[in-house]
Amino acid sequence: MVTCYLRYVIDPYKLAEFEHYGKLWIPLVERFGGQHHGYFLPSEGANNIALAMFTFPSLAEYEVYRAASLQDPDCQAAFRFAEDTRCILSYERSFFRPVFA
């Protein structure tokens, strides 16, 4: 199991656009076999940082999703929405594995 953690620097004046972007991606990740844990928007503190987390059964399955998303029309539309609105200034992606008792 691998969890992808995304940290976004967003335009705080385009929070509604970023929220729409997040709502586009949640079902797309799930369609490709991932479990989305949601997008987390600024509330208190920094007004330009947002997070997202989703899990795939393995890094290999995540890579299949990444390759397939580049060809999927709905994913391409979500990518274009972010580019057109410029709601995302930058992002970083990290991967984590869970530890259970």
List keywords for this structure.
32% strand, 4-stranded antiparallel beta sheet, 101 residues, 4 strands, alpha+beta, globular, 3 helices
Strand content bin: 25-35%
Number of strands: 4
Shape annotation: globular
Give the C-alpha Rg.
Answer: 14 Å
What is the tally of helical segments? 3
Short structural description:
This protein is an alpha+beta fold and 101 residues long. It has helices spanning 15-31, 59-69, 73-85, and strands at residues 2-10, 35-40, 49-56, 88-96.
What can you tell me about this protein's structure?
41% of the residues lie in helices and 32% in strands. It is α+β, with helices and mostly antiparallel strands and 101 residues long. The radius of gyration is 14 Å and the shape is globular. The mean pLDDT is 96.
Helix-strand blueprint:
Elements: E1 2-10, H1 15-31, E2 35-40, E3 49-56, H2 59-69, H3 73-85, E4 88-96
Antiparallel strand pairs: 1-3, 1-4, 2-3
Helix pairs in contact: 1-3
